[in-house]
């Protein structure tokens, strides 16, 4: 396998790893999009949930 990263030709394991990671990322994002389309109420409910970080950053004076 060969490809180009920043205009520089690259071959071998690096290219195959990048392509595999890209494929996995695309399938995950597409799954999120499909889930949001199929069940918008669940998607909105999950968006409205407070994150763990928000409770960590809650500062009381």
Explain this structure to me?
- It is a single chain.
- The longest helix has 26 residues, at 13-38.
- The N and C termini lie far apart (59 Å).
- The chain has a domain at 25-50.
- It is 66% helix and 13% strand.
- It is α+β, with helices and mostly antiparallel strands and 61 residues long.
- Strands 1-2 form a two-stranded antiparallel sheet.
- It is elongated.
Features of this protein?
alpha+beta, 3 helices, elongated, two-stranded antiparallel ribbon, 61 residues, 2 strands
Number of strands: 2
Which parts are unreliable, with pLDDT below 50 for 5 consecutive residues or more? Answer: none
Strand content: 5-15%
Briefly note the structural class of the backbone: alpha+beta
Helix content: 55-70%
SSE string, helix = H, strand = E? Answer: EEHHH
Q: What is the 3D shape?
A: elongated
Order of strands in the sheet with the most strands?
1-2
Radius of gyration: 20 Å
Distance between the termini: 59 Å
Sequence-ordered SSE layout with sheet pairings:
Layout: E1 2-5, E2 8-11, H1 13-38, H2 40-48, H3 52-56
Antiparallel strand pairs: 1-2
Helix pairs in contact: 1-2
